[in-house]
Specification:
Elements: E1 7-12, E2 22-24, E3 48-53, E4 59-64, H1 69-74, E5 79-83, E6 93-102, H2 117-120, E7 129-132, E8 140-142, E9 147-154, E10 161-165, E11 171-175, E12 178-183, E13 190-192, E14 197-203, E15 211-216, E16 224-231, E17 262-270, E18 290-292, E19 297-298, E20 309-311, E21 316-323, E22 329-333, E23 338-343, E24 346-347, E25 353-354, E26 356-359, E27 364-370, E28 375-381, H3 384-388, E29 389-390, E30 392-397
Parallel strand pairs: 6-9, 8-16, 17-21, 20-30
Antiparallel strand pairs: 1-3, 2-4, 4-5, 6-7, 9-14, 10-13, 10-15, 11-12, 11-14, 15-16, 17-18, 19-29, 21-27, 22-26, 22-28, 23-24, 23-25, 23-27, 28-30
Length: 405
């Protein structure tokens, strides 16, 4: 897609079950958000639905179902969504790496067991095979001296990734589709929770003919090689790194007024080895092991779910997200991007905007945004097992509910 140009997408459901499409990270009208029961009726088998919107922001986004999410996303029903800048950055080429994992049986087929409640109360369904763009990755061919932009997308159900590029210094230029101050990640480690995206620029300064590993070392003791940067033996494209600025043009995000912003708090609760003081009074409580502020919403979306909180249209808000559990949670807010102000009271540098923020156990984060997009918007953990087992709620912006179904 191109920034600021309208698009029309016809979804023809040839599955034997309901589905929808959520355009993750795109700031669009509520009726196009793809949450069954909240923003639209589900697309029944044999039916079509037309999504029409104009993407206001350039960047790296993606799309996936918000119906039977564990099975449909867990079996690969997702894809990258790239909104191109009006003025592309000065790079020689760009790559899209959509990283997913799969739990395969000994026969090579996807293993059963989606929705295991023991896993749902812990880290979620983590696979045993990792792919880039749907295939077990081979070497990534590169050439010395070139500058490459890599759009990283974590589309896994639950796997958190921490990527390291041996012998290279990736520079982060965007997070969740939103440009930031170019910077090298702490310790050279790119941390990606499920649903998160990071755009990096790499100046390929390795030796011609050599291979450099890209590893994921998030989980203790089970680090693995994702792929290799395999340099051709050809002479360098240029003798020195490209002398051009790395910063991307900012998107037209409304800047929150921190001085007048109203404050709210969302507390994440539940799970194994946690959940102290948790009171859960949501829907379908038989499968709820997680909650937000004591309320649980299981599955993928429910008509008539009361909002956890209501925000005044056009007002600035600072929301503290507090992880009162023993597990990691990537929290995604639909319909908005937000500025990440603090983590555990410490100021977050580099002007970071996101739509999904990863919280470590017992960590807090302060996010700020203007509630400028009316409707009932989902806020949920993007470890899909956590979402479907209760860590999901509705945030209402404004009073006009004409977009609800």
């Amino acid at each position: 897609m191109r920034q600021g140009e309208p698009v029309r997408i016809v979804v023809d459901n040839k599955l034997e079950q309901d589905t929808t499409v959520h355009w993750h990270g795109i700031r669009l009208p509520i009726s196009m958000d793809g949450v069954p029961g909240i923003s639209q009726l589900p697309i029944r088998p044999g039916e079509t639905f037309v999504y029409a919107f104009t993407p206001p922001d350039a960047g790296t986004f993606w799309y996936h179902p918000h119906a039977n999410s564990l099975q449909q996303l867990g079996r690969g029903l997702a894809g990258p969504l790239i909104v191109e800048e009006k003025e592309p950055p000065p790079v020689d080429r760009e790559l899209v790496w959509m990283v997913m994992d799969w739990r395969l049986g000994t026969d090579g087929h996807i293993a059963a067991g989606f929705g295991n409640m023991m896993e749902a109360g812990m880290a979620g369904r983590i696979g045993n095979t990792v792919t880039i763009n749907g295939i077990v990755p081979a070497d990534e061919p590169v050439r010395s001296g070139e500058r490459v932009r890599i759009r990283l997308i974590n589309a896994a159900l639950a796997r958190i990734m921490a990527l390291r590029f041996q012998g290279h210094r990736p520079v982060v230029v965007a997070i969740d589709g939103q440009p930031c101050d170019p910077h090298e990640p702490a310790g050279g480690r790119l941390l990606l929770g499920p649903a998160m995206r990071i755009d990096v620029v790499l100046d390929m300064q390795g030796d011609p003919g050599r291979r450099y590993t890209v590893t994921d070392d998030f989980y203790d003791g089970i680090d693995y090689t994702l792929t290799h940067l395999a340099y051709s033996a050809a002479p360098p494209v240029r003798p020195h790194p490209l002398d051009a600025p790395l910063g991307l043009s900012r998107n037209p995000l409304p800047e929150p007024d921190i001085t007048t912003a109203e404050r709210r708090e969302l507390v994440l609760q539940g799970g194994m080895m946690g959940g102290r003081g948790m009171r859960m009074d949501g829907m379908d409580m038989g499968r709820a092991v997680w909650a937000i502020n004591g309320m649980s919403m299981t599955g993928d979306g429910h008509a008539g779910m009361p909002p956890l909180t209501t925000l005044e249209l056009g007002r600035s808000y600072i929301v503290r997200l507090r992880n009162d559990t023993a597990w990691w949670h990537p929290i995604h807010l639909h319909g908005h991007s937000f500025r990440v102000l603090h983590r555990n009271e410490a100021t977050v540098p580099n002007a970071i905007w996101s739509d999904t923020v990863l919280l470590a156990p017992q960590e807090s984060a302060d996010i700020a945004f203007v509630a400028d997009n009316p409707g009932d918007w989902m806020v949920h953990c993007h470890v899909t097992d956590h979402q479907t087992a209760g860590m999901m709620a509705v945030v209402r912006v404004g009073d006009d509910q004409s977009g609800r179904r």
